[in-house]
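Q&A log
Question type: sequence-to-structure
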Amino acid sequence: PELKKDEKKGGVAVIDPRNGKLVKILPVDNCHPAGLAVGPNNNLLLGCTADGKEMPPIITIVNAKTGKVVKNVADIGGADMVTYNPTTGQYYTGSRNMPGGPVLGVIDAKTNTLVQKIALKGGNPHSVAVNHANNHVFVPQSTKGGGCGCVLVFAPE
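Response status: OK
Response body:
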């Protein structure tokens, strides 16, 4: 996820599925992409692993066709996995490395704005998944020091 040994630059590799060859890299600043979710309007939401020290906690949205950054969503980041629910029109982030502690981030995919941050207590909640049938959002959360934890389930009101 780091480009040309620049710690503040990452990228998304575009690969031709027919031959497996690299077509191009979509560069992004202040983001080491980990997760990727395909949203509306050919937008890709990137789970940026920035820890808030060297790079600000942001989520970057890139247009897949143009390669241009659509928006950097501030005050949410440090994410590993991300997902999109077309039924609710929302992206969700497993933001485990947010300054102040881990959160589940909710981003409106139409306006590309942060809607909500839900604090998660402890553990390492780096994953997030959504059930499109009932709109429930799932975040696995381990216990401090390892061991078996639980899966938190959120439902929109």
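Response note: The two ends are 36 Å apart (CA to CA).
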